[in-house]
């Protein structure tokens, strides 16, 4: 079965059918396969257009009928090429949207994990205990500053004697 018929007939893994739809990775893989297939078809049509143009030039004025037929085929190929360009553009847009959605889902999931971790870290903390601890730290810093001031004033004892 060709890739296109698999794509349109829904050929895929049984696992993706069982859970209600393909995973983002499966969908992205299929979109990339389709992009590759359409790109190859574009290249093929471009070479066909060049061949038909060369045939039209070759026949030129000698065989107008053959030249016109070549130009008509060239026009048909150009129309197909234009349709493929539009389809490719749509597929690229869909792939990018799916990639962005998948990225957003992963980011959101990771943010949820981080929130749970923060909740676990903070569950043993009490705001009143933290406030008391911060007051104790401030008091001890004040005591340390007083001790430091007292020591530094004693070192300059020669200036403070009363006559």
UniProtKB/TrEMBL annotation:
Judging by the UniProt lineage, the source's domain of life is Eukaryota
Q: Provide the topology term for how it sits in the membrane.
A: Peripheral membrane protein
Write out the GO cellular component annotations.
cytoplasmic side of plasma membrane; cytosol; ESCRT III complex; late endosome membrane; multivesicular body
- List the InterPro entries: Snf7_fam
One Pfam family, short name: Snf7
Methyltransferase recorded as keyword: no
UniProt-recorded name of the protein? CHM4C protein
Source species, please? Pelecanoides urinatrix
